[in-house]
Amino acid sequence: MDWLYTVSGFAVGLIVGVTGVGGGSLMTPLLVLFFGVSPATAVGTDLLYASLTKSLGGWVHSRNGSVDWKVVGLLSLGSFPAALAAIALLKYLALDEKTLRGLVTSVLSVALLATATALLLKEQIKKLARRKDGTVYELHHRYLPAATIVTGVVVGALVTISSIGAGVLGTVALLFLYPRMASVKVVGTDIVHAVPLTAVAGMGHMALGTVDFVLLGSLLLGSLPGIYIGSHLSAKVPEKVLRPVLALMLLVIGLKMVFYK
Fold this sequence. Notes:
The structure is a single chain. The protein is 79% helix and 0% strand. By secondary structure, the protein is mainly α. It has one domain.
């Protein structure tokens, strides 16, 4: 089965390279629904997988200056404690396999449906932030840091339990909170924040014993070349076609996860 994991890693890596999204939201349900991997193990393994695969993208954005480090810091103030709290809660509750499976799949299905919706409504959300005269609605600067930290808390908890949320949902939240921020900076900031967050959450899952390192290695073997090839194809594939297709795919997977037992 190892070669199938590698092929799957390549396919998901290709999609991530072309669209910039879809890592956790495709890989985790794929492992659960297609390969029959335990949901908790799929989440734990995918978190470390995401951290490693996004590191290169984060480094590139950092070198290009397309990262708002203040926003990364504010998000981290919320997301890191939330991730650690979620891991500590899972450890404390010591849920049996059936209950843990139910919890993870429930959060996973909600995260998938939310991600699909965010992808479909991304342009509408951008328009909501603009007035008729072209100026933008902005949260008062006094409340912006607190709102960013709260966003980090939500993303941190969601990512730790489902491995989903640091990509599309994080990007949409930043677009809403910082409508004046350039799109490339929104993406770069989100990716740089996601790298240590998924690493922290992944190491937490490693401590819980819900990481499969053989599976992780097989996925990386395929995904790294997939992302490299996909990133070179991204300019040739129109985003207007890709986004609704990916959103529909996530919507179908999310609905399937709702009824997963």
